[in-house]
Design a protein that fits this description.
The chain has helices at 2-5, 14-28, 31-39, 48-70, 82-91, 98-117, 120-127, 130-151, 171-188, 194-208, 230-233, 235-238, 244-268, 281-298, 309-314, 320-333, 337-344, 364-375, 386-401, 405-422, 431-453; strands at 76-78, 155-158, 162-165, 303-305, 347-350, 356-359. The chain is mainly alpha-helical. The chain has two domains: 2-135 and 216-346, no CATH class; 383-453, no CATH class. Strand 2 and strand 3 form a beta hairpin. It is globular, with a radius of gyration of 21 Å. The chain starts with a helix and ends with a helix.
């Protein structure tokens, strides 16, 4: 096993990889419950139990494939944002059936796979300058830290100032703050497994004080497979011109989200070569592309690479065994859903206005700490070169504030091209970067063009 996963070459061992897999799984286990909640929104027609089963199975297959085929510590599951497009845009907005919506995801996955097979996707990745690659890693670090603050209720929305400090008199928010202190202390001491230990301690304390609900049971073997295959059967029904803009939106998000995630995780794990490239990048991208179609076929929405993989890399994960462990744990989670909900589930607290917000106080601290670790790449950006630093700054700024990885990358690409042209140095820009910047610009103005045409 050590020879297959190249333990010695990457300075790791079996215990470290298993621990990293456990950590990654614990920080992304929330998707097991969030994905059914989004896709199973009233009116979509998707059964919660069916989406739960599809989510676990699709994530397991994709993550194990990533480990065995690409030997890269990148875990995959249904993508947040992508599932919202499926539920609220395709089904509730355009009136597609859930089978047709999943078929759109299948078509998008096929298109991305074709780009990988023709080497175009990897070529675009290699065309990105190192300053933007590092900026993407930093921006994603801020993004995931912001998600952690939001998920922990430490930062909430405010109509006057947009954001404000959460209510520290509430038990779940206090638990998240406690978990953050514990996790930061463990990581600062250099304790191996500190992030995972922080999750376990936070969960245990939450149960002791009644903040996190005790599990309602141990196992549940009632599996619902009703969503499997529905998306494949409906593919002929979605091959129509009117759906091209939606397919393109999914395509752009999937295409560049994975690139940003792969770069960030590779940077965190010191897995990039001297030119800032991911070895075996084509295999990584191929698995990710096939996973998108797999998610649609299973009824779990598009499956994509998860930035939470950085938590496992932060614990020392350097090989595909980390991903294999994550995949196996998704299978283990199938009957043990009552226990998983304790760590990955959300609990309600009073919102800043009327109503409630739901926070995940157990895993939120881990995301904040991972964000810090990913931000360390900021030192590698040449801040004294404005034509490199300004696009990097815009990427770092807009990625978390737009709450969208692709948008942040788009701002970086477009500004990089414009600044190089303004300086009279068009030759510094790879031709494919011009194409990518143009596509992003079209994506940004597309809603306005639609309004004008209508």
């Amino acid at each position: 096993m050590g020879a297959f996963f190249k333990f010695s070459e990457r300075g790791t061992n079996f215990r470290t990889e298993v621990l990293a897999g456990l950590t990654t799984f614990m920080t992304m286990a929330y998707i097991i419950f969030v994905n059914p909640a989004i896709l199973g929104t009233e009116g979509t027609g998707l059964p919660l139990s069916g989406v739960f089963f599809a989510t676990c199975v699709a994530a397991a297959v994709a993550s194990i494939a990533m480990g065995l085929v690409a030997n890269f510590p990148l875990a995959l599951a249904s993508g947040l944002g992508l599932n919202a497009i499926v539920a609220f845009t395709l089904i509730l907005g355009l009136g597609l059936s859930w089978q047709e919506a999943m078929a759109v995801v299948v078509v998008e996955g096929v298109l991305v796979t074709l780009l990988v097979v023709t080497n175009l996707r990897e070529a675009v990745l290699n065309a990105i300058p190192n300053s933007l690659k590092f900026a993407i890693a930093v921006g994603i670090g801020l993004f995931i830290a912001f998600i952690g603050l939001k998920n922990g209720g430490l930062v909430v929305q405010d109509p006057a100032t947009y954001l404000k400090l959460g209510d520290l008199t509430q038990g779940p928010v206090l638990l998240a703050a406690f978990g953050l202190i514990v996790t930061l202390a463990l990581v600062a001491r250099g304790l191996r497994g500190g992030i995972l230990i922080g999750i376990l301690v936070t969960g245990a304390v939450g149960m002791i004080f009644g903040i996190v609900p005790l599990p309602t049971g141990i196992v549940d073997f009632r599996f619902d497979t009703s969503t499997i295959g529905g998306g494949v059967l409906a593919v002929p029904q979605v091959l129509q011109i009117s759906l091209i803009p939606v397919i393109f939106a999914l395509f752009m998000t999937d295409f560049f989200d994975t690139m940003g995630t792969m770069i960030a995780v590779g940077q965190e794990g010191d897995l990039l070569d001297d030119e800032g490239r991911v070895p075996q990048a084509k295999r990584v991208l191929l698995v990710d592309s096939l996973a998108a179609g797999l998610g649609g076929a299973a009824g779990a929405s598009s499956v994509t690479s998860y930035i939470e993989s950085g938590s496992g890399v932060a614990e020392g994960g350097r090989t595909g065994l980390t991903s294999v462990v994550v995949g196996l744990l998704f299978l283990v989670a199938l009957p043990f859903s009552p226990l998983i909900s304790v760590f990955g589930g959300s609990v309600p607290v009073p919102g800043p206005e009327e109503g409630q917000i739901f926070v995940s106080p157990v895993t939120a601290p881990a995301l904040i700490v991972v964000g810090f670790l990913m931000m360390t790449a900021v030192r590698l950006i040449p801040w004294d070169r404005y034509d490199e630093a300004i696009p990097a700054f815009l990427t770092i700024l807009t990625l978390p504030l737009t709450f969208n990885i692709s948008y942040g990358i788009g701002f970086g690409f477009i500004s990089y091209v414009l600044i190089k042209l303004a300086r009279g140095r068009p030759g510094d820009v790879h031709p494919l970067l011009y194409v990518a910047a143009l596509l992003f610009a079209l994506a940004f103005v597309w809603p306005s063009l639609q309004s004008l045409l209508s």
